[in-house]
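stage 2 :: seqdesign
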């Protein structure tokens, strides 16, 4: 009887569908434990290609959850998420069985564990013809924690689990794996689905529900379903010509729902006025809300304190405008997200920019936070960040990532984009370009073009390049966009100077691109009155002189408010009057800040830090030009007073970086530096360096980085009477060339360094390899290999020898607390370098050494370690040494304590001075903490 009902349901669905559109009819039963889904399915597939097909590709994307090594698992590891990699078998998703029939004849299937099933057809399918396939299969649903889809104690979220054809590959040739990037693959398809659910369960969907647990209709996106014991809220908008029901896959607070009932009609009207369409149904899942909400409007919490940037109504308004805008675009425009992600993302940001202009034009980036008082004052008012407008966030975000040369071209494949560039490039940069074009051609003209483009491509896959062409046809000054999207760009407009003649100002503008990109010029009077001009530039024209009335012009600006993705805004400002006429002003600041491009900023900040036991605390000031954004030219000078010696000390550095946009190098840096500190009581050293670093280009999503460094260092140091008597080195030069490879990925972290160093008395070559394997959640095994060899060694003492358990910091680069300490707790500081032994094995190495250092997790913060090695000194036989012990990771990689147990020296806990044999690492490096925290973003 059940099979008869299923057949009747599928048959009734067939007669409803017109030709040339795929149709999918499903009977699905969810098991009582919500872990199994039994599916009977009928698929009517049309050959929409121009060639005859002998196979049909079906997407079996639940297989992405089935094993390690899939594209999904790898992408999660890139995001520093190891949950799926370490998942238990019962948490994984997979296809348990599959039976497919073509005209009542079963089709053989080679594997159900692959994400792409290439199905041989009984009969060749000609263009325009259809084939009807019957499928029976059972799905083991994955745990929902991996992607937001699957089963959990609270509910079941279904998306991308049913077996479907790939509409973006009509030729059925290319594999398409699941990456959890919210791409649509079943556009313009008719669906009819009936669910058999456990008792007391409800279901919501983006499909139209026509009876209990049954849904049908056309979708230009993939269907999604939420099954739970709760009925989630919905809001019906019935205003003017908008009839839309918005369903939510999560609960709303009464205040949130009240705010949404006010804002959603405004959102939909605003969006429809610019796109020409809104769907009748919108389903917002919890996952979609988290991905598309407004970045940067959350409250800031610190300890027990909570600082609010925006009130609850404003947060709801900002969040849901972007969410609803993206949903409307997803339902209205069909694009292949892999190649054309930037189109819908850019339009979403364009709509956001328009919305912010209208309703939040004067709102600050930090909201009301700068008005927060602490002890009666408003400290954030000292920051330029407190004056930055909310609408400037789009240009600033691009500036931030571009200044590190980690941006990517707009039309980069989506799966190659870093998480940060998904927002900064695909969304913000593209949206900025759309807004810039609309500002130039007129917003009504741009919106009309968008509406027409969407209307004529309803239910069709669109090529966004066609939109760019139509944009150029309507306004030829946007023709540069076609090429702009295909490259990492470093376009820069520069206000060179101005010349006053009579009542006119003749302004000279330089641009570094041959493209005919217009530029927006703005003048401002002392009273704050502004005038705007569009300056047209010709192709291959690098210099443009533009004349404007000189009356009351105090300041001249190009592309104010970051309205165009320029490489450098610092040369976009000139003053027309006063001492700084034709110049940029200098501004002193006391706290690191978002850069104000209008000024040459010098940051002066007090510095107090503990250096070592000789200098003790260093007190002074740092003078630098580095803001929160990287710059090509950087300087930093830090004169300090040493409380340990009562003398002046300090350091300074100047460097310049070349950041080629598209090259084998990400950055090429040349610099000089110098420092003066103490390395022993009453003994100072000075160090001068000239260096260059070549950082190779990296995929911002990749964890791999490679670099080559070259340096020359000159040292002078004071010597004690004993050192003079031993003919120690007071002056020496060091040359160094090294190559570094680092891969900081989850699970398998590895690095390799090769270095050669020389001076007149020695020449050494060193190699170091490191591997760390996370074999279980938060359980790791580390292996380090070290090898060092003296090509030449005619030194007068052991200063430049390899260390066994202690390093000889003759280059003053390890930040030792007790550089020359031979006893006490300062001498127990451990640095993983040279031999890397934790036990105090005496001696140094003047010929060659090899060692291996092993460390593995045991329980929570407790590890065990073992070191072994062989070394050879001149005129001596080679020696084998080893040690072992327990390591306690108090703060992993920053504060760790080593308790030696057994070594070449014997059973160390039995020694009377065992307390002096305990070692520790202490790394106080803020940049290391920041780099560790931002892994997975870029």
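stage 2 :: out
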């Amino acid at each position: 009887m059940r099979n008869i009902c299923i057949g009747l349901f599928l048959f009734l669905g067939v007669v409803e569908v017109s030709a040339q559109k795929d149709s999918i009819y499903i009977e699905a039963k969810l098991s009582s434990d919500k872990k199994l889904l039994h599916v009977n399915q009928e698929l009517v597939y049309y050959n929409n290609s121009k060639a005859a097909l002998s196979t049909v590709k079906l997407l079996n994307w639940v297989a992405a959850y089935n094993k390690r090594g899939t594209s999904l698992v790898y992408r999660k590891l890139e995001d520093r998420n190891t949950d799926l990699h370490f998942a238990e078998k019962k948490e994984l998703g997979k296809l348990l069985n599959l039976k497919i029939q073509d005209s009542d004849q079963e089709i053989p299937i080679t594997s159900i564990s692959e994400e792409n099933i290439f199905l041989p057809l009984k009969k060749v399918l000609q263009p325009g013809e259809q084939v009807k396939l019957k499928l029976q299969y059972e799905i083991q649903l994955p745990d929902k924690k991996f992607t937001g889809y699957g089963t959990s104690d609270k509910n079941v979220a279904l998306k991308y689990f049913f077996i479907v054809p790939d509409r973006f590959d009509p030729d059925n040739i290319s594999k398409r794996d699941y990456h959890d990037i919210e791409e649509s693959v079943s556009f313009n398809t008719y669906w009819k689905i009936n669910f058999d659910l456990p008792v007391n369960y409800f279901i919501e969907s983006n499909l139209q529900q026509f009876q209990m647990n049954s849904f049908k209709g056309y979708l230009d996106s993939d269907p999604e379903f939420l099954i739970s014991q709760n009925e989630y809220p919905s809001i019906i908008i019935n205003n003017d010509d908008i009839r839309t029901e918005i369903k939510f896959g999560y609960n709303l607070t009464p205040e949130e729902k009240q705010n949404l009932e006010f804002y959603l009609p405004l959102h939909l009207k605003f969006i429809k006025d610019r796109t020409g369409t809104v769907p009748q149904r919108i389903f917002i899942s919890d996952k979609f809300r988290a991905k598309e909400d407004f970045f940067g409007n959350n409250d800031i919490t610190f300890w027990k304190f909570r600082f609010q940037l925006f009130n609850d109504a404003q947060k709801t308004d900002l969040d849901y405008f972007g969410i609803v805008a993206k949903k409307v675009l997803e339902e209205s425009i069909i694009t292949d997200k892999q190649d054309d992600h930037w189109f819908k993302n850019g339009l979403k940001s364009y709509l956001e920019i328009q919305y912010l202009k209208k309703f939040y034009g004067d709102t600050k980036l930090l909201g009301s936070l700068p008005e927060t008082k602490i002890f009666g004052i408003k400290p954030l008012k000292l920051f330029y960040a407190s004056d930055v407008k909310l609408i400037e966030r789009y240009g600033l975000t691009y500036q931030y990532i571009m200044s590190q040369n980690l941006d990517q071209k707009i039309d980069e494949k989506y799966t190659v984009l870093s998480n940060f560039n998904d927002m900064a490039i695909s969304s913000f940069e593209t949206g900025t370009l759309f807004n810039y074009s609309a500002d130039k051609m007129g917003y009504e003209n741009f919106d009309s073009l968008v509406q027409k483009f969407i209307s004529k491509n309803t239910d069709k896959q669109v090529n966004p390049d066609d939109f760019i062409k139509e944009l150029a046809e309507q306004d030829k000054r946007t023709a540069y966009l076609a090429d702009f999207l295909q490259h990492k760009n470093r376009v820069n407009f520069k206000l060179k100077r101005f010349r006053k003649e009579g009542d006119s100002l003749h302004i000279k503008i330089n641009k570094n691109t041959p493209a005919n990109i217009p530029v927006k010029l703005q003048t401002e009077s002392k009273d704050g009155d502004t005038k705007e001009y569009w300056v047209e530039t010709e192709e291959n024209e690098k210099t443009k002189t533009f004349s404007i009335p000189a009356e009351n012009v105090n300041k001249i600006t190009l592309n104010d408010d970051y309205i165009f993705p320029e490489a450098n805004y610092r040369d976009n400002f000139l003053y027309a009057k006063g001492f700084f006429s034709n110049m940029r002003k200098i501004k002193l600041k006391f706290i690191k800040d978002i850069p104000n491009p209008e000024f040459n900023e010098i940051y002066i900040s007090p510095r107090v830090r503990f250096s070592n036991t000789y200098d003790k605390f260093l007190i002074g000031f740092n003078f630098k030009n580095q803001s929160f954004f990287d710059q090509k030219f950087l300087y930093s000078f830090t004169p300090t007073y040493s409380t340990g010696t009562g003398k002046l000390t300090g350091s300074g550095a100047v460097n310049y970086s070349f950041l080629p946009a598209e090259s084998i190098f990400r950055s090429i840096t040349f610099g000089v530096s110098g420092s003066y500190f103490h390395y022993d009581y009453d003994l100072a050293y000075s160090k001068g360096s000239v260096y260059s670093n070549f950082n190779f280009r990296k995929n911002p999503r990749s964890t791999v980085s490679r670099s080559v460094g070259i340096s020359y260092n000159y040292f002078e140091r004071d010597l004690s009477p004993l050192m003079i008597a031993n003919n120690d080195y007071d002056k020496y030069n060091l040359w160094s060339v090294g190559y570094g490879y680092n891969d900081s990925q989850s699970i398998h972290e590895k690095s390799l360094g090769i270095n050669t160093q020389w001076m007149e008395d020695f020449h050494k070559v060193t190699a170091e390899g490191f591997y760390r394997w996370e074999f279980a959640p938060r359980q790791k095994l580390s292996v380090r290999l070290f090898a060092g060899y003296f090509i030449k060694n005619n030194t007068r003492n052991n200063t430049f020898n390899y260390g066994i358990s202690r390093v000889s910091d003759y280059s003053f680069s390890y930040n030792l607390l007790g550089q020359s300490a031979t006893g006490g707790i300062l001498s127990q500081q451990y640095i993983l370098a040279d031999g890397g032994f934790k036990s105090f094995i005496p001696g140094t190495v003047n010929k060659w050494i090899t060692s291996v250092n092993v460390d593995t997790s045991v329980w929570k913060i407790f590890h065990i370690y073992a070191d072994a090695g062989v070394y050879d000194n001149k005129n001596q036989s080679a020696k084998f040494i080893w040690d072992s012990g327990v390591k306690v990771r108090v703060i992993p990689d920053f504060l760790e304590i080593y308790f030696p147990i057994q070594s070449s020296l014997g059973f160390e806990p039995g020694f009377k001075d065992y307390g002096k044999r305990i070692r520790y690492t202490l790394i106080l490096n803020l940049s290391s903490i920041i780099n560790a925290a931002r892994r997975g973003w870029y």
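stage 3 :: structure notes
- The first strand starts at residue 23 and ends at 30.
- Confidence is low (pLDDT under 50) at residues 1-19.
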